[in-house]
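Lab meeting prep.
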Amino acid sequence: METSSLIYLFVGASFALYIGIAIWSRVGSTKEFYIAGGGIHPVVNGMATAADWMSAASFISMAGLIAFLGYDGSVYLMGWTGGYVLLALLLAPYLRKFGKFTVPEFIGERYYSDTARLVAVICLIFISFTYVAGQMRGVGIVFSRFLEVDIDMGVIIGMTIVFFYAVLGGMKGITYTQVAQYCVLIFAYTVPATFISMLITGNPVPQLGLGSELADGSGMYVLEKLDAVLVDLGFNAYTENSKSMIDIFAITAALMLGTAGLPHVIVRFFTVPKASDARTSAGWALVFIAILYTTAPAVGAFARINFIDSVSDMPYSEVAEVYKNYEDLGLVAWKDKNGDGVIQYSAGAPFVGKPDFDGDKRGESGERTVTNAPTANTNEAYVDRDIMVLANPEIAGLPGWVVALVAAGSLAAALSTAAGLLLVISSSISHDVMKKTFMPHISDAQELRAARLAAIVAIIIAGYFGINPPGFVAQVVAFAFGLAAASLFPAIIMGIFTKSMNKEGAIVGMLAGLVFTFSYIVFFKFVSPELNVAENWLFGISPEGIGFVGMFVNIGSAFLVKHYTKDTPQDVQDLVEDIRVPSGAGAAQSH
């Protein structure tokens, strides 16, 4: 069977499975819609959390960024995995014991204020839509390549699929769908990695293959060859950093703290029966996540080796067909600057800006005509980082069924997280804004209808961001983590561990952290991107890491305002004390 037919078969079968689960698990109450009835088994919830957590950024983009950033790309691995440990230890059990449906509801109750609840909803919407933009871009890229539609149509198809199982099944449908999606995506990630590790090093375990000798008889190790080849081409060595240590630290911290403040992950710990199950669920999720995250560095290194071997100093007429397929989508480009018909790949941007194709015109040597003027360097090749995981199996010449599996897995990763984010947005609007604030007397059925309507609107907005993305998938997601680190995380952590923090301090802190971080990102990424260089950054910290500074802006503002406002009521302080004490502690102390 041809690869294209296998792709349609694998993707179609997985979509049928997801929609079937959504129909089977259609909900009839808000409790089922928001937290799946609160009866999910910890192992099942751990697997669903892993799928919710491992988004298009993890599956599609992270290894691609590691492939081109090398050592600098380690910030994504360290930040995201470390942050999940922080979430599991410091937040999940306490939030579950508090027993509220959503993060804004926790903040509203803990800080005894509807205003605090609404500010938390605003923060949540900023974070979630920034995050979901990356997911929908990933969906569009996968559909455009494997189903041969343009990226915009790919995003629309993804929106339709998410509509079925997010709007019909709510959290119950999403949970069981995400279990299936985890199985698909982890199989799709590890199988090609095993094949490619065998081809390059002879070692079937990718994690070990990364440190093994090459199978070409050269006697060189994988990272040793990468360092040598990249230095020859004018790049930094793969194992050396180009970012400053302060920026690496800030990005890692922002990703870590942002992880602990992500609403779509936190809400998963409300779906288990009791607080101890939340901790167990978090442990299982970490095991499931580690399978992919320990494989990603090897995938990134192997992808860069394959890319260089298949492109550098290669006549355009002989390059793999996969590049020409992605070229038609605007994700790969070549400009024959010296007219020799051979691709020269080296350091430096090949064009001013991103590829801007002039129709379907090609030069005499086959290169795509680019309307942007070339920059003053010898590099002739452009490749979008987000395609490396998708293209790697084809570049390596793996069987068609492996390519089809990657297509299904990448869609599973993107759609699982997109659904979780959209559910968080819809439940916050229907439950926190309507039911808990402005329309407290609406019935359960009316609230459920409002949640579904909010989900539909959120899907439409998410689709717009997917069609008009502000950057690479993992970069967009990094901004979402920065916003979470600067806004929700401090409010949650102070709400649990600081009895004296009052509502005025929390409200001002959240707004200050959000406004500071959002303004910094918008200025350097959209208003004045030409100034986005290290010498112009505050303390030398890039927009990807500024959420770390935003966290201190939040905490500092909160404590300053608290000092000049009324103390927290005693009953609220007693409530905080109660959620910090493990269940049964009093009985244990009495014996």
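Slide two material, second protein:
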Amino acid sequence: MAFIEQEEINRIRSSASIVDVISSYVPLTQKGKNYFGVCPFHEDHSPSMSVSEEKQIYKCFSCGATGNVFTFVENFLNISFAEAVELIASKVGISVAVNFSKKKEIKFKEENEAMDLALKFYQNNLNTESGKKAIEYLKKRDLHENTIKDFSIGLAMDQNMLYKILSKKGYSDKLLESIGLVHQIGNEEHDLFQNRIMFPIHNLDGQVVGFTARCYLKEETPKYINTKETILFKKGNILFNYHRAFDSIRLLKEVIVVEGNMDAIRLYSVGIKNVVALMGTSITKEQMAIFKKLRSKVILMLDNDSAGENATLTVGNLLEENQIPFQIVRLSGEKDPDSYIIKNGKEAMEEVIKNAISFVDFKLNYFKKNKNLNDASDLAEYIKAVIDGLKNTNDIILKEVTLQKLSNDYNISYTVLKEQLGMTELEEKKRNEKRVEKKEERQSSYDKICRKILFYMMNDKEYVRLYQTKLGVFPTKEHRIIANEIVYYLEKNKTINLADFITYAENMNLKDEIMAIISNEKDLVLTEEEMLELLAIIRKKIKKEEINKLKALIKEEYDVNKKMALLEKITELKKENGD
């Protein structure tokens, strides 16, 4: 597919009515010149999403979700930006093939090619005489031909075969080291993985970026070796099996989350395909963002050991904080999903998934650990822990049921429990307010002004011209870079439109910062007078900083004439600043 030009994307966007598109997914009601509806990107009970026909953007005044027609479809349907563009194009009768991955592919073209060749090499090794023992081992682990093919499982042999092959094809030692295929011992390069069964790891787009290598000829330490962090492999950005599971997740609106790669492989191989693995017990903010974007219920099924239980609490708290719906599965009798299915079968696994419990029910059991509930102090500690665990849930009925259960089971006044929960929630609210205050303190008034100026510039070319003539530069690097992008966009396109600039930001590293500026600005009424006032404030700040720098130079300067020149410059700047 050909790479689509920005101008063509803009044409598709301008041909589509954002109101018509969004109203096909979410009911909208017109109020004045804008339309309002319930925001689908958070748990919204009253219409908090505004859709502007004039500006062709949407904005939620509760959760901050914002964007144009492409970003709405992208996030609502959990599809890529390229797919969203194609979908909108089809709606307005424009035929186009889109490939937004071209730039990314070019950036790591050689590295990706080398990884693909390594994958093919490992796969082919299973078909050799040396691969027979590996096949036998895999069969003993109940991994048969279809699964081996589905997951591209292979074999790394000894004698540095991979290094020799890739070197002959022209790949440099530096490149092969940078992607974690070889390492240097003494003055020689060696295959990093030798005599191990290879499980490829793919990124979210389905490109192989690393491997998990398992010993099989004899038990070694470590049993598993993973690709180190490389330019291609960032463990925190990856969910094992995501690219295979995505369609099933989107269809079922449910994603099963396990710890290990083998757990995901086992579930997938028996037909439970909406499964991904964290590749460990911890979870990163990047992985959490993936779950949030999926907008599907999470079934958290970590290992049945102490580490897995503790991780369930930690991950559960994060899911709850991010308002991601989820339930818990705690397996009994087996350590992990892999061994559970081998012993009990697919139907038993489907049954435990069907009977997943709420996070509150999990915590009711978790907080009982190592406590004697016949002891008054232990019981009080347990009750407090349970009540504290209820503060983040918005489910009023669940709160009521839990408090009623505690009251009945332990003969404690329901009123007392309710009062305690109210105080806990009030304390949490105060803590949240303090966190917000600190965040606002960190974001100085000057920072807010700069962001407002940038927002104005994204909306109208006249404000870009005012910035260029009245200011020209921001005091901070982040704001300077965004302003430069806006100026560049205007010079190239001769006009600027917020909905189109959002599309332009899609392929920029500053996308998150730009979207944050747009979502935080609630006033869409732009006046030239206000813009000039804001520019004057920043201009005055820049001159004050210049004055302070000159004062510091005067303290270090011993030459009288140079000191006088610096003083004259300071006087001049003060006059310009009106001081």
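Talking points for slide two:
The chain has five domains: 6-100, 106-233, 237-354, 366-439, 445-577.
The two ends are 61 Å apart (CA to CA).
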